[in-house]
Amino acid sequence: MKNPGLAAVLSFLVCGLGQIYNGQIGKGIGLFVAAGISGLLCTVVIGFILLPVVWLYGIYDAYKTAERINRKGAGENVAG
Question: pTM for the full model?
Fold first, then answer.
């Protein structure tokens, strides 16, 4: 069973860490790299918009994925 709150907190602390906790290693590393690139883009202003978007997506996705994993483990029918 995955804890959605823990997954969200991990992604809050380090973008992509919640996905890695959920077993989505590739997605987690991708989000970590995207956040790093967005951070570098802060020097040309676009990163100030892109970085929070990537960061918030990582938190939301980690939470929802953990919930979906838990529902599948409980035997419920899950779409998407």
Answer: 0.76
CA 8: distance to chain centroid? 7
**At residue 71, what is the residue type?**
R
**31/61 Cα distance (integer angstroms):** 11
Alpha-carbon distance 13 to 9, whole Å? 6
The answer for 22, left when phi > 0, alpha when psi is -120 to 50, beta otherwise, is: alpha
For residues 42 and 54, is the Cβ–Cβ distance under 8 A? no
CA angle 61, 24, 40 (to 5 degrees): 70
Q: What percent of the chain has pLDDT over 70?
A: 94
